[in-house]
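Researcher: I'd like a structural prediction for the single chain below. Treat it as a standalone chain; there are no partners to consider.
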Amino acid sequence: MVSEMNNNSLMTIVYIGFDGYSDLWADCFKLLNLFWNDRPYRTLFVNNEKEVAYENVEVLHAGKEAEWSKKVQLALDKTDTPYVCLLLEDYFIGSFVSTSNFQKALELMNKEGIRYYKLTNMARVLKNHDPLYKGIDYLHIIPEYDEYGVSLQAAIWNKDYLYELLGNENYNAWKFEFYRVKETNANSSKAKQGCVFDDRNILNLQHGVIQSKYLPKTIEYFNS
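Model: Treating it as a single chain, here is the predicted structure.
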């Protein structure tokens, strides 16, 4: 547990980007600043080399050859908070965000020693009725059998836990989800202990792009 820190000092928001997807960035950060303009957290954006500037966002360059993992490592090295909210450039905030929800999530993580707090669960239907975490009606325990329970969907991470899963290599995001997390968890009898997901989608995220194409339902959502 981290003591004697206010909520604003607990978390850094980190976006990871790829220069080849730079056409997404202006919309991504415009929506962030429109719908969460009162966020009290430092916001970092790590790309390769492209020079860009966005309001209330610090841009870091990881280098031409840096894959996803090296960008995350750079971001973590540049933060002094115990938690990071890790986000991707192709998930767009779709309506106003309540900072209070984040403050409460951070308080719970700090109090309970939660290592991973998934903010949306777009790929999973609750067919198995995943159990609630301590009776909180929107918060679920990620079961050990959920192969992709810990993933790169939007989440708040304990920085030490994320460091542990990352390792020191230079690799892409898919390797992290398909191999690195599994390899690390294979050595633990309680790999997902302290890992939960919030079913409310408190960032109001809309998945923007798959295989280099905008999703029609996302275009329709923002047009409306």
